[in-house]
Amino acid sequence: MLPSMARRIYLFLLVCFCASHALAADTLYQGGDSLNSSNTLVSKNKIFILGFVRIGSVESSASYLGIWYYNETSHPFWLANRDKPIADNSGVLALDGSGNMKLTYSGGDLVDFYSSPSSTTNLTAVLEDSGNFVLRDKNSGGQQDLWRSFDDPTDTFLPGMKLGINHTSGQTWSLMSWLSDVVPTPAGPFTFEWDPKGKELVIKRRDVIYWTSGHLTNSTFENIDRNTGFLSVSNADEDYIMFTVSSNQFTPQYQRNFSRWQMKYDGNIVDDFTKQAYGATSCKGNNADAGCEKWSGPACRSSMNSFEMRRGSFDNTVFSMDNNSSLSISDCMDICWKNCSCSGVTTTGNNDNNTGCTFFYGNLTPDPNGSADQYYVIVGQVSSGKRYWLLIILAPVGFVSMMGLAGVLWYLRRRRHRAYFIISIRAEKYLNELLTLDSTNDTPELENDGNKGHNLKVYSAATIMAATNSFSADNKLGQGGFGPVYKVV
Ligand SMILES: *[C@@H]1O[C@H](CO)[C@@H](O)[C@H](O)[C@H]1NC(C)=O
Ligand SMILES: *[C@@H]1O[C@H](CO)[C@@H](O)[C@H](O)[C@H]1NC(C)=O
Ligand SMILES: *[C@@H]1O[C@H](CO)[C@@H](O)[C@H](O)[C@H]1NC(C)=O
Ligand SMILES: *[C@@H]1O[C@H](CO)[C@@H](O)[C@H](O)[C@H]1NC(C)=O
Ligand SMILES: *[C@@H]1O[C@H](CO)[C@@H](O)[C@H](O)[C@H]1NC(C)=O
Ligand SMILES: *[C@@H]1O[C@H](CO)[C@@H](O)[C@H](O)[C@H]1NC(C)=O
Ligand SMILES: *[C@@H]1O[C@H](CO)[C@@H](O)[C@H](O)[C@H]1NC(C)=O
Ligand SMILES: *[C@@H]1O[C@H](CO)[C@@H](O)[C@H](O)[C@H]1NC(C)=O
Ligand SMILES: *[C@@H]1O[C@H](CO)[C@@H](O)[C@H](O)[C@H]1NC(C)=O
Ligand SMILES: *[C@@H]1O[C@H](CO)[C@@H](O)[C@H](O)[C@H]1NC(C)=O
Ligand SMILES: *[C@@H]1O[C@H](CO)[C@@H](O)[C@H](O)[C@H]1NC(C)=O
Question: Which residue has the higher pLDDT, 151 or 391?
């Protein structure tokens, strides 16, 4: 097993905001006003900053023009030149006298944001407290936005942005993930889009549907845990969705309260306010719950198979590497999925920027201490049947405690009595918890005993409480010999 890998510190996230000092202004004016790597624009109430930012591995000095939250340096939510990083500090954003706004560097022009068709303009480019960088013409009343950063989203969806399509111009608004946590190139494997026909949000991986939100009905999506705040517009000109925020809420001090969705490189849409994640958290193989699409793959991948993150070591030395830096962790998982001899995968240890794949072909010996390397491992080989079923025995409500469970086990062992009740698992987060041994660590011995002695899983009271919605009457399926039986939701 790659001994060097275990010791190697591979993740160098360097987001350097060091040289910047604030201009203490939020506006660039036509006529030679410019921004270079030593200064920034700050929105009126200090919510957002526009400036040059360096992202990448230690060796990389790739510089990007970006927008980020004032005190939050981890991940700029907008990048102007994500596909064309600047290798030095020569980047300049300028609004010249003829009304052209462009990003230039030592090698010439990099991005043309806007070219004025007339010489009589009086343009201003303002970084607003919404996070939108907007170009307007004072001479034509300043009403019309000539260019908006919100129309060219990166991987983050904020209130005021749209996801969808402008039928007149053909412009689409969608998010595209970074390639890895330190590589922002728009070659990321995931996109987040609005499907106007199905009226649903869709995550695609390399153009294949990966997750869907379910239809928007009454401001809610079936697979999104949030029951308000969506506006969808559909007419001859446009089809889009946006977050709605009432105008009295739209004050600077509340700005950070609003949901901010980020399309992560690993395939999750994360709501940074509620901390909920949709997509890759559940969709790791053939799970079709929670909006997931089953992965296409060879027949050796049964309907039970999926990837799980596990710590341990592979018990033989057979592995192979693909150092292609266009491959993200999700691409690696997909390649592994399609090769019946592959059992696990990681990006760790290849390229410094967490791209490229290492594939493993043996069995993983788990590390109970939790200090070994982590891998995505294909689990659940032993199955048939379409839906996932778990066998759980529950004691009567009053006895569901560790003692109660121990009693049941003891009883079972003595009597060799088998009475299993079938419980359908629907919600992936509980499924994950139920299948991951280390998350049920408050009953470790019972758990092992349960697995070995009875082919029976035992879960902590807290897990079961959560999974059965605190034994809500709605989840009660019936009464059995050992007590009531609950549906795990
Ligand atoms: C940025 O511009 C200022 C003047 O606006 C100048 O003093 C400074 O040297 C420039 N910095 C770089 C890195 O070009
Ligand atoms: C940024 O941090 C400073 C100091 O920690 C704090 O006083 C200020 O309120 C923060 N600003 C925002 C917009 O959160
Ligand atoms: C542009 O507009 C600003 C304020 O709106 C005004 O002060 C300035 O004189 C105008 N410049 C030109 C060239 O019209
Ligand atoms: C849609 O595109 C047309 C043509 O470019 C433009 O006039 C219109 O303002 C756009 N609508 C929106 C909401 O951007
Ligand atoms: C829509 O949601 C509102 C507020 O939650 C509720 O009062 C109303 O009954 C819902 N309508 C439908 C058709 O579900
Ligand atoms: C929203 O932000 C304000 C100001 O920071 C805070 O007072 C309020 O409690 C927040 N609301 C929620 C729901 O978190
Ligand atoms: C690297 O992977 C990309 C995406 O799969 C592929 O298009 C490209 O040809 C590969 N490059 C090499 C050198 O194999
Ligand atoms: C699966 O991986 C093994 C080991 O690298 C390789 O020899 C084999 O050709 C792969 N099979 C397919 C179908 O790609
Ligand atoms: C891939 O990268 C690893 C680690 O840097 C190196 O040991 C290996 O030789 C590389 N493989 C190829 C085919 O370049
Ligand atoms: C990622 O790292 C590899 C090798 O370490 C390098 O070849 C590649 O250019 C890097 N990609 C980016 C976008 O920095
Ligand atoms: C786990 O920890 C124990 C005690 O610290 C140690 O003896 C054992 O070797 C460790 N096992 C692994 C797989 O690291």
Answer: 151
Ligand nearest to the CA of 320: 8
Token pair in block for residue 130: 């919404």
Among 18, 21, 38, say which to mutate for ligand 1: greatest number of ligand atoms within 8 Å of CB. 38
**pLDDT over threshold 80, residue 395:** no
Instruction: Supply the pTM of this predicted model.
Output: 0.75
DSSP annotation string for 130-184: TS-EEEEEGGGTT-SEEEEGGGS--SEE-TT--EEEETTT--EE-EE--SBTTB-
Per-residue model confidence (pLDDT) at position 59? 56
For the chain, percent of residues with pLDDT exceeding 70 = 69
User: With a 6 A CB cut-off, is 320 part of the ligand 7 pocket?
Assistant: no
Ligand 7, closest atom to CA 322? 14
- Cα(254) to centroid(ligand 6), Å: 6
pLDDT at 481 over 90: no
3 state SS for 313-369: EECCCCEEEECCCCCCHHHHHHHHHCCCCCCEEECCCCCCCCCCEEEECCCEEECCC
Any idea which residue has 């010439």 for tokens?
108
